[in-house]
Amino acid sequence: MITLYGCLRSRASRPWWLLTEAGADFRHEPVVQAYRLPDPAAADAPFNTASPGFRALNPMGQIPVLDDDGLVLTESLAITLYLARRLGGDLGPRDLAEEGAILQWAFLGGTAIEASALQILFTYAKGQADTPDGRTTIAAACEAVARPVEHAEAHLAGRDWLVGGRFTAADIALAECLRYAQPHPPALARFGAVLAWLERCQARPAFRAMMSARDAEPA
Ligand SMILES: N[C@@H](CCC(=O)N[C@@H](CS)C(=O)NCC(=O)O)C(=O)O
After folding, report:
1. Is the CB of 36 inside a 6 Å radius of any atom of ligand 1?
2. Predicted TM-score (pTM) of this structure
């Protein structure tokens, strides 16, 4: 049995999206981040990243975590790419070359885009986008993401999807990292192919189902 731990207001959105795309049978345990609770240790607190039972799964106290019949994995992108192969089908690589390409785009998202895109998301979430500090943070984040996004832009010109001419785990991985930059439209405005591709990714029923389930969770 596949169990995915982590509320969807987290990077658990990535494997949840992939599992839903694949039509996989899985159990979802919506563990919440401890920092979002007034008292994570309270008797009536929901299962959270500081709960001893969760720490036994991931001593780092972070979501998502995957338990696949006793194989426990952390790291959202590793989980997503693992599931793509584990479940078989077209979301995963068909050969080694595709596997390399899927890893390339996922790592680009995770190493060159995610941290800066999160700066944008958090600055907006804290209502600081129009403050002098917020503007400085956002300008630096936009500059940081521009180079890797230019790479994706060049690749996506004339292509619908990142790898193999079909929607794969690579699209989930990169699109989810870029989603964090979307609260600030100028960050991606000059990347027409990337914007069109993001729209295609986010129009998929599995993405929309993920966002609906996410939006139904407490903010
Ligand atoms: N690199 C990890 C990052 C995991 C992570 O930071 N998760 C956040 C939610 S998106 C979390 O659990 N935060 C709670 C905490 O760090 O205490 C991954 O991609 O899974």
Report:
1. no
2. 0.98
